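Protocol step 4 of 6: structure prediction from sequence.
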Amino acid sequence: MIDALRRAALSLALALLGLLGRLPLRFYHALGAFLGRLAYRVSGRYSRRMRSHLRMSSVCKDEAEYERVLRTNIDETGKQGIEFIALWFRPQAQAAALVRSCKGEQEVLDAYREGRGVILLTPHLGCFEVSAMYAAQRFPITVLYRPPRIGWLEALIVAGRGRGNEKLAPANLKGVRALFRALKNGEAIGVLPDQAPGQGEGVWVDFFGRPAYTMTLIGRLWETTRPAVFVAAALRRPRGEGYDIEVQRVEGDLSGEAGARRINLAIEEAVRRCPEQYLWSYNRHKRPRGAPPPPKS
């Protein structure tokens, strides 16, 4: 009886979200900007973290630029928190069509045809959700995700993301095996490279001049088939007009600590091109439970 009620509630929620997903992207970006400003004013911890991380990154050349980037970032962070409704809950092809341009797309397609696999690194820059959807219109892609602790929320994530050629791999042993298998089959995978890993799954390397516990999974995946690796960032256009994806290849050996450092540098390069849309509120420099302390400077 309880399971039947849960299934009915999930079906109702999906139906409602399906209706909400038809609303234009500009509605969600306007609402997100409002919610971003509200969160900034209400939560002192949130606003202090955003200000501190942006300032300590040194991406702004002076105080005037810092204030400008901060004001924009407050809105952009709010947009990132809500725009998934306009992407997960409309037909995937329609969601992918919100991408208006993709700089570097041909290089990715050429690399995919080589048959060694492709790794798309989608950091917390712009709308990482739409990057995988856009890629899935061109080839199969398996995307790593961290399951939430709330069961019904995971069901929504799977329903929204795991459609068509986009397959989901949970961040556990089973999911990691799925990533390795996809690469060995010459397919593409997607990973959030700037998410803090768990105990024993990372190394301390610099990110914007400060130690950040950085995942080593990407390097281990790279060692399997030597796939082509790209950083892909879907940047928002103004007034909810869609997204422009920018793709940059990451060259060199990506294994071990040196590889993790190379990946962080590639992410930094992408962020410096549009610091307004990076998730500065995310505590990238935190020490995960059980992880060793960061090295002393």
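Step 5 (inspection) to follow. The chain has one domain: 2-277.
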